[in-house]
Amino acid sequence: MKVILLEDVKGLGKKGELVNAKTGYARNFLFPNKKALEGTKENIEKWEEDVRIQQENEKEAKAAAENQKAELEKTSVELKMKSGEGGRLFGSITSQDIADALEKKGHKIDKKKIELKNPIKELGNFTVPVRVYPEIVAQVPVVVKEA
Questions:
Q1: Which of 26, 34, 69, 128 could staple 138 via S-S, CB 3.0–4.6 A?
Q2: SS3 for 134?
Q3: CB 66: neighbour CB atoms within 10 A?
Q4: β-pair type (77-81, 88-93)
Q5: For residues 29 and 35, is the Cβ–Cβ distance under 8 A?
Q6: How many CB atoms lie within 10 A of CB 60?
C-alpha cells in the first residue's frame, strides 16, 4: 500500500516521502497515529505539487546563496588588535569577531556558519570559510593588523 509519510518513521522513510508500507502496518499504526496519509490519487497529486513547490523554493534559496557567496568573497574584513613580540596577539580573533565585522559591512552572518577551526592568534592575512548553504562555502579574506 502506498503511503505519504507525515513524519520520519524508523525503518520506513523520512517525512514527505512516498513509500510502500504493509497494509496492516499502515491501517493499524501509521494512519491512527497520524504518521502517514493513504496514497490515494488526490493525495499523490497534492504531494507531487508540494514536492515541485519545495524544489522551486530550494532552487531560489540556492541561487540566493550563490549571490551571497559572491558578495562575501568580494568583502575583505580588517580587524585590529594589540600584539606582542613576533606578531602574537594579546587574546585571539574568534568567529564572533568576524561575524561582527561582517555585520558592520552589511552581511548578517551567524557565527555558527563561520567555520574557523581555531581562533586566529597572530597578525597576517587569512582566508576563513563561511557556509552560506549546506553545499556552498564562501572564502572570506580576513586581515589582522596591529592596533
A1: 69
A2: coil
A3: 14
A4: unpaired
A5: yes
A6: 10
